[in-house]
Amino acid sequence: MTPITEVEGRRVALSNLRKVLYPRTGFTKGELLHYYATAAGVLLPHLRDRAVSFLRYPDGPDGQLFFTKNVPPGTPDWVTTAEVPRSSSEEPARQVLVQDLPSLVWAANLVTEFHTHQWLVQTPDEADRLVLDLDPGSPATIVHCCEVALWLRERLAADGIEAYAKTAGSKGLHLLAAVRGGSPERTSAYAKELAVEAERAMPGLVTHRMTKSLRPGKVFVDWSQNAGRKTTAAPYTLRARPLPLVSAPVTWEEVAQCGTPEQLEFVAEDVASRVRDHGDLMAGLLDAERAAALP
Length: 295
Description:
By secondary structure, the protein is an alpha+beta fold. Helices cover 26% and strands 24% of the residues. It is built from seven helices and 17 strands. A hairpin with a 2-residue loop joins strand 1 (4-7) and strand 2.
């Protein structure tokens, strides 16, 4: 029988709580749910009013993975949903909004990574986030991403834009900034300009092109996730990796001092102490007054 729990007055069905999702550490579905519930204070503000796409891995990262944007079958009627525009030739899609703790726990029970667009559902034609995904091609690592991130931080600062860093929760690094006044197309074009400049400044280390053959030993600065239909892993989401790694915000001091990939690997059990020590390192993204106009 599926247990039912009450979360802020909502009845949420939970299933297979003892199921091991990450065999390497024995991390269970119950622990996954506990992580999301305890991280809700810092995670929910980054999900609220953003259409959520789910990467689901119900049998763990070694099982079937599938990405879904549409509202999953069986979604409770109290979970908020919204129409999300697609291309001009397609009908709008309906996607989930994770607005509160009950909907977060319900979604986490599906075993998910949370991915969001760089715009709010109220204003799909205006990007309020800029994202640069720094993806290292072996033998490059996150250590090399940190070097590129520091250069990009300074370059963004020259345009009056404050950057925040988080681990991808896999092998790379994400830079995010709060912006205003630009469409997804304009933001994407600006991000590409930054990636091209980074390649010119560090030609032996950076590529802005997606061609796989160009990426070994370099950091691919992926600017394309600013496109209106693209999504990026949300801050604090768990990732479907061999370990229960989290896409965790990091300090710029940690970025500057990174000497080995392990220094910027954070699993679920690390997050609570980091939040106690630092608060939400990406809280500035949520402050509209700190959003910078695109140049």
